[in-house]
Design goal:
Blueprint lengths: L7 E3 L33 E9 L9 E4 L2 E5 L2 E4 L8 E7 L5 E5 L6 E5 L6 H13 L7 E3 L3
Antiparallel strand pairs: 1-3, 2-3, 2-8, 2-9, 4-5, 5-6, 6-7, 7-8
Length: about 150
């Protein structure tokens, strides 16, 4: 489980990532990660489809994931870029790796990303449901690309 050379790059209209102290989940709610996700699966370009309106990752961003260090089952530390040092949990990823829900136990980060900017309503709905189970307040988030 060595490091994979990767970076997280935010490329939404040249927007600089904004820090946020907001918490988007009930930290007392149980939270789990999907244990069968490997470091290679999140590799590549993603469209952020559901996320907070402000913060380092917002709805409408394009993320380029390319390297993380696995720190636990379904849990990865970002090693480069705007979120370097952050540990992200894959809360859910569909079987074909097209849609994924990402979060943190502390609730400061959480979003749903998809390989496409539009479509996949069934997968987005499933990811929203899973984030809700894990304490995320999706009423505080915006959805794009429905």
């Amino acid at each position: 489980m060595g490091a994979v050379c990767l970076a997280l790059v935010l490329t939404a209209c040249g927007r600089s990532p904004e820090p946020s102290d907001a918490v988007y989940r009930d930290v007392n709610a149980p939270m789990s990660s999907q244990v069968n996700v490997t470091p290679a699966q999140p590799d590549g370009a993603w469209q952020v489809r559901v996320a907070p309106v402000t913060g380092p990752v917002v709805a409408g961003d394009t993320l380029r994931l390319g390297g993380v260090r696995q720190v636990g089952p379904g849990r990865f530390e970002v090693t480069q870029g705007a979120l370097a040092g952050q540990v992200l949990w894959v809360l859910w990823m569909d079987a074909d790796g097209r849609t994924s829900a990402i979060g943190q136990p502390g609730g400061r980060l959480g979003w749903i990303m998809d390989r496409a900017a539009r479509g996949g309503a069934d997968r987005i709905a499933a990811a929203r449901e899973i984030m809700g189970w894990q304490g995320y307040d999706l009423g505080l988030m915006k959805e794009t690309g429905a």
